Amino acid sequence: MSTTATTDSAKPSAIRKMAPQELLRVEGITKVYDGSVKAVDNISLTVATGEIFALLGGSGCGKSTLLRMLAGFEKPTNGKIFLAGKDITDLPAYKRPINMMFQSYALFPHLSVWENIAFGLRRDDMAKGDIAERVESMLSLVQLDKFAKRKPHQLSGGQQQRVALARSLAKRPKLLLLDEPLGALDKKLREKTQLELVNIIEEVGVTCVLVTHDQEEAMTMASRIAVMSEGSFMQVGSPDEVYEMPNSRQVADFIGNVNIFDGIIEEDESDHVTIRCEECLHYVGHGISGNVGMSVGVALRPEKITLSKEQPQSEYNWCAGEVVEIVYFGAHTTYHLKLDSGKVIKAQELNNTRDLSCGLTWGDRAYAHWNDMAMVVLTY
Amino acid sequence: MTNIYNYLRNHIPSRQIVIGVPYLWFLLLAAIPILIVLKISMSEMESTSVSSMISWTQGWPTIKFNFASYIFLSTDPLYFETYLSSIKYALITTVICLAIGYPFAYFMARSPKHLQPMLLMLIMLPFWTSFLLRIYAWKTLMVNNGVINNVLMSLGVIDDPIAMMNTPFSLLVGMVYSYLPFMILPLYANLSKLDIRFLEAAADLGTSPFRTFWLVTIPLSKAGIIAGSMLVFIPAIGEYVIPELLGGPDTLMIGRVLWDEFFSNNDWPMASAVAVVMILLILLPMAIFNKYQSDQAEAKS
Amino acid sequence: MNKLFGRAWMIAVYIFLYMPIVTLVIYSFNASPLVTVWSEASLRWYVALANDGDLIAAVWLSLKIAFLSSLMSVFFGTFTAFALTRYKRFPGRTLLSSMSSTPLVMPDVIVGLSLLLMLVSLQHWLGFPERGLFTILLGHALLGTAYAAVVVTSRLNEMDKRLDEAAMDLGCRPFQVFRLVTLPLLVPALVSAFLLTFTLSFDDVVLSSFLSGPGYSTLPMVIFSRARLGLNPTINAVAAVTIAVVSIAVIASSIYQSRAERQRKREVAQAYSDANQ
Predict the structure, then answer these.
(1) Which ipTM was obtained for this model?
(2) Mean pLDDT within C178-205
(3) What percent of chain B has pLDDT over 90?
(4) A73 and C165: CB-CB below 8 Å?
C-alpha cells in the first residue's frame, strides 16, 4: 500500500505494546442492503482493551452501519464479531454487554435523569439499593447530582450529553459505542466537552468505538483512527500516523488540508529520492519503495511550507507563484499561491507577531519552500 | 405463572401478531364485505345468501352470475341521472369550498402567529359537535317560516318568504357548510408552511402582489388544493344525510337512492349494484389522487 | 386594504360556521312550540328533554357504544399503525394499507351496506351475531380503527427511532421496548385517537341505521328520525346540551395544551440560560 513507511518500519505500533489484550475482533464483516448496495465491505479490525477507536469518514461511508452492527441493530450479511473471545454475531442488541451513546442522545423524554440512568440497570434484575447506589455514583461522575429529578428537556445540550454518557456507562459495558458524541453541540461547547468526555472515559477505563465525521474530534479523542470510505478502511493508525503518513491521496485529502504535486521519480537512493514535477523538483530525505520512472504524488501540508519574498538558493524543494488569496484565521493566515503552471497551492503561516510577518499581499510574487522531510510520497 | 410469562415473551412471534391482528380485522370487516356486496349485486332478489349462488356440478363449485341488476341499472335513465347529479353536486360543493376556503386559509396563515392556534381551534370546534345537529340547524334557518325568512321579512327586505328548503340551494348550503373545514385544514397546513421568502423574493424581483399570488403562492400550494378538493369531493359524492334532510325531490343523490333501494324497496341486489357502481365512481378520483401523490413523492426523492 | 378584506372574509366564514349552532342554542330557550318563532325565554324544552325516555335511553346507548367502540378502535388502530410503520416490507402490505383506508374514503352508506350484508351472511351460517348493540359496535369500531390508525401512525412516524434502539441497547426485549418506551410516548396520541373515534361514533347515523336491530336506537338515529319528520324543539335542547359539553371540553383541552407547551418552552429556555451562567 504505502511507499512512505520504510523509515518508520522499525517502529512497532506503540499501541499494541501498551495494551496487548484484544477485546473486540471483527472478521470480514459485510453488510449488503437491497441485495446489491454494499454499506460495509469485508472489514476486519481488532480493538484492544482500553483503546478509543475512531471510525472517521464522510456521510454514507459505512461507519454508522458498522457501529450499528457492533451494537446489534443490524445483522451482518457476512462475517463475525467477537467480544472478549466470544462470538456475539447472532446475539440480539439487548443481550450484548455493549452500550451506546446515541447521536443526539435519545434520552427518554418521559423519564427523569435518574430514571434514564437507572433504565438499563432495572432490566438486569439488580437489587433496588444497588441500582440507587450505581445511579448516584454515575450522577456524580458526570457532575449532575443536582439534576437527578429533571426531565431531559429541562437540561441544556451539554447536560443532556452527560446524562447520555452516564446512562450508557451505568451498566458497566465492556464496550462503549459513541455515535457522533459531540455532533449536537455548538462549536464553543465542543472543545470543553471533548476533554470532559475523554477524562470520564479514561477514569472509567472503558473501551470505546466512536463514529464521527469530524476529523478534529477523531484526532483529539481517539488513540487509533480508521479512515473509512465506501464501506472499507482506507487507513488505520494513530492520529499522527494518519495525519503525517497518509497512505493514499484520499486519506491525505480527507484529513486536513494538503497540496498534492504530480511527478515522476527521477532518482531512487536508499537515503533519498528526487521527484520531478512540473512545478518543482522535490528532494525527499528518506528512501521509498518505488522505482525510477514511476509516477507518484507528493503530498505537502500547508503548515510545512515557508513563504518568502526572496528566491531560495537551493535547487529543489521550492516553487514560485503569485499570491492570489489571503485568508486570515487569527492564529494563522493561509496564502493561496498561483504557480506558473496554473496550479494553486496553499501555504499556512503562523501569526506569531502582531504585524503580518512576511508582509505579503495580493499580487506579490512569493517563493514557497520546505525541508526535505516535509512531504509524503503517495503511489495511490 | 412467571414461567408461562417468560415462555410467552420468548416465543410469541411479535411480527406475525402485529401484522396479523389488523390484517384479520380489516379482512373480515372491510375486504370480505365489499366482495359480498359484489356477489350479491350479481344474484337474484330471492336468493341473496352467498351459498345459494354456488352450485355444485360434478364436485366442482360453480358460481352463477346474474347481471339483472346491472342491466336494470343501465337501462333505467333515473340511475344514470342520479350518478351524474351526484357528481355535479359534489363538484359544485368542492368549487365553492375552494373559493371560500382558499382565501380563508391564506389569511389565516398570514394572521399573527399567536392567534393562529385559536383560529384553528375555532375551525375544528364545529367538527367536534354533532354533524347531524348542525345540519338540522340549517333546517330551522332555511324553512319558509324559518329564522332567515323571518329576519328578512321583519327588516322589510322581502314581503314573501323565499323558498330555500328542499332545493339545490339548501342542499349546497348544507354540503359546503359540512365540508368547508376539510378544505380549510389541508390548505392552511400547506400555506402556513409556505416560505415567506419566496414571496419576498418575488417582490424583490419586481412582481406585483397580485401576480405573485398567481405565479408563486397558488402553484406552491397545489398539493394543499388537491388534498382539500379530494377530502371534499370524495365523501360528498356518497353523502346521504344532507340530501335527506336538506335536499328536495329533484336533488338526486346516489347515497339516497342506495338507501331507498335497501330500506324502502328491500331490493338487496339492486342496492348492491348501486354500491358497486358508486365504488367505481370513487375509485377514479382516488386513483388520480394517489398517482399525483406518488409522483410528488418521486419528484421529492 | 388587503388586511381589512382578509379580516372581513375570515369573520364572514366564522359567522357562516357558527350561525346555525348559535341559533340552535338560542331557540332551545324558546317557549313556543313553533321552533322558528320566538315567543319568550323558557326552559320548557329542557324539561321535556329530561322527561323524554326515548331520548335519554338513546343517549346512554350512544355513550356506551361510543366508549366501547373507541376502545376497540384505539386497540386495532394501534396495531394497524405499528404494522404499517414498523414493518416496511411484508407480503400484502399494500393490501393492508388500502384496506385500512377504505372506511375513510368509502361513503358511509357503502360501509354500512357491505358490513350488514357480511353480518347477515355470517348469521346465516353461524347463527350469530344478532343485529343490535354488537353489530353497531363492530361498524363503529371499523370506522374508528381507520381514523385511529391515521392518528397513531403520524405520531409513530415523528417519534425518534433511536429511542427504541436505546431501550433495546439498555437491555429491553422487543415487548419491553413497547411497554416501557413506545407506549408511554404514545399516550397523547392514543388519547386524541380515543376522543376522535368517540366523537365519530357518537355522531354516526348511517352505519347505526344499517347495523342496528329492533330496540337499539342510538341518539343520532332518534334525532334523525325526528328531524326527517320536521322541526322539534326538544332536539334544540339536546343540541344545546351537546354543544355546551363539547365546547367546554375542546376549549379546556386546547387551553391546557397551549399552557403545557408554553411551560415546556420556558423550561427549555431556563435550562440553557442556567447552563450558560
Answers:
(1) 0.88
(2) 93
(3) 30
(4) yes
